[in-house]
Amino acid sequence: MKKSLIKNADLLFGKELQIVQNGSILINEHGTIEDLFTSEKRLEKKDTTTSNSVNKNNKIDIIDAEGFILLPGLINSHVHIGDSIGKDISASSDLNQRIHPQYGIKKTILEKTPSSQLMQMIRNAAMSMLHKGITTFVDFREGGLEGISLIQNAVENIPIKKIVLGRIDFNANYKDENTSPRSLKNGKDTVTKSQIIKKSNLIEENDIINQGSKIIEKCDGFGISGANEHTDEMLRLYNKIILKYQQEREEEREREKTELNGHRKEPVVAIHAAEAETAVMESVKKYKKTEIERTVNTLNPDIYIHVTNPSSSDLQLLYQNNKKIVICPRANGVLGTGFAPIRKMLEYDFELGIGTDNVMLNSPDMFREMDFLIKSQRAVEKNTRFLDAKKVLKMATVNGGKIFNLNIGSIEKGFQADLLFIDKYDLDLYPIHDPHMSIVQRCTERQLKAVMIDGNFVLEKTSIR
């Protein structure tokens, strides 16, 4: 790959998405942003030799992006891509009826659909995301090792970045004569599972830890379903697996006396929590603690998904423990679980990420997600100034990179060149008086003319080069 120079573009630069007109981006052979400058000044005052020699170097591809706004690739921080086979099935059912991992409609669909068909639907969803400017997605993967292999094989030849978070299927392993479909349907399976973990000889704790260790070796961490679907014992087992993994990596570092360059980052642990008010009440009734109180103590995850119905003490606890939050506004809307308390979250200064959640509930469209978020929150707050567009756009780009500790989501030196080319003269955008607001509430797949990942064009709807 040759170096590339993108010139004459309007940029949303850096972690504050600063508007820079007539900007240029130099991308090195590895797809990383090497330098940024305008015709008048450098955007980052470091090495001063690069920009002066760019036009003299015939080994650099020149890309004239006049007429385009360049923004970082969108990061879909929470999605269930595997259930795209079930788009809008039982659309008026509640959360548990549709997506509960033990007895929901989603579980039935996934079990009855052939793997080849699931793979095709996953490919379709991944391509859909790419066409909508999503350059990285974070998938919560059901099905243990088989589920991880399924998605990895499905998107192998699709040039989109993925973070795959697996999970242990306890329900497939633990069986008991006293567990009836009726008790599961009523969501009262936790006590039975606790008895099973204590009494069953089918699988020993070490076997579960070994199973979880194999899962975490094959993906990027754990993406755990709702807290109420797990006993304290189950959550602690996840924690033991992570600690075991970290200890093994530390021992390996000691043996090799190296930083293990080339090995992947520390595994991510994320969990759904406080999505529905009924789930919070169920947790308090069974455990005398909210889902968040339970999981901070037993699991200690890095990231919480939804947090739509937290208590004030829940938010304080998350803040005190430096936890990250990913919200899913449209999914919570279609399931009727409410609006996340964005104002309180921002007062705590959480760096919020955004996800489109289950493909069976929503199209995986971050433009629509941002549009819904800003309008619904202003309606809830009855305030036209609440939640400015830049904050929302940061949730879909900059914050996603921070949450997952990756050099993505921002146009700055040292970050990967994942870029979107937006036609600023499109009929629905022009004239643009507020670029952040125009992108958040007016931009669609149509205005997106090209997608670049790691410095390579992976989608071009019009000729740019």
TrEMBL record:
Q: Which GO molecular function annotation, any one, does this entry have?
A: atrazine chlorohydrolase activity
Query: What protein is this chain from?
Result: Atrazine chlorohydrolase
Broad class of enzyme this protein falls into: hydrolase
Q: What is its EC number?
A: 3.8.1.8
Stretches assigned to the Amidohydrolase-related domain: 69-458
Pfam families in UniProt: Amidohydro_1
Keyword presence, Iron-sulfur: no
For this UniProt record, the keywords arranged alphabetically read as follows:
Coiled coil, Hydrolase
Q: Which SUPFAM superfamilies match?
A: Composite domain of metallo-dependent hydrolases (SSF51338), Metallo-dependent hydrolases (SSF51556)
Gene3D superfamilies reported in the protein's UniProt record:
Metal-dependent hydrolases, Urease, subunit C, domain 1
Instruction: Locate the coiled-coil region(s) and give their ranges.
Output: 235-266
